[in-house]
Amino acid sequence: TNILLAMVIFPIDKEGNLTMAGEIRKLYEDRKFQLVVNELVAEEARIVIAKKFPGSVELLEDYLSSLKLTPKPSALRVERCKKLISDVKDAPILASVLQDKPNYFCNNDIKDFHTERIKRLLARRDIILVTPYGLLKAYNLR
């Protein structure tokens, strides 16, 4: 959610340069990859933007309309993921990744997602876990 919001609200820094989120956004807009966002993440982004950036609600909705949105994971899938991740509130996100099977899962939550256990779990499903920096590095931009 935080990466999606940064792509929408903060693609450019105060000096007018692309932020990392802005670089990811540009890659997407240049059709270097398809950006897949689970409806769960979109819903969370809508809540955050309505609270913290109410003037940007329409901007988010316009951006979401250009993305591939996937359905929320089932309650059973989420329940199974609670046993796999240290913070159970992140189980729905893990469940959505396992359901959607993206090539890359870009996430900043180092403590809960960037663990050896989660990396192995995702690797067995051919999903590469990266930070925004790692995603840009994969596209030779860093």
Helices and strands, with pairings:
Blueprint: H1 2-9, H2 20-29, E1 36-38, H3 39-52, H4 57-64, E2 68-70, H5 75-82, H6 91-100, E3 104-106, H7 110-113, H8 116-123, E4 128-130, H9 132-138
Parallel strand pairs: 1-2, 3-4
List keywords for this structure.
142 residues, mainly alpha, two-stranded parallel sheet, globular
How would you describe this protein?
Helices cover 54% and strands 8% of the residues. It has 142 residues and is mostly helical. The strands form two sheets. It has a two-stranded parallel sheet with strand order 1-2. It has a two-stranded parallel sheet with strand order 3-4. The chain starts with a helix and ends with a helix.
Name the overall outline. globular
Mean pLDDT score, rounded? 95
Can you list the strand order of the major beta sheet? 1-2
- Report the span from N to C terminus: 22 Å
Provide the β-strand percentage band. 5-15%
In this structure, how is the largest beta sheet organized?
2 strands, parallel
What radius of gyration results from the CA coordinates? 15 Å
Total E-strand runs: 4
Count of discrete alpha- or pi-helical segments spanning 4 or more residues: 9
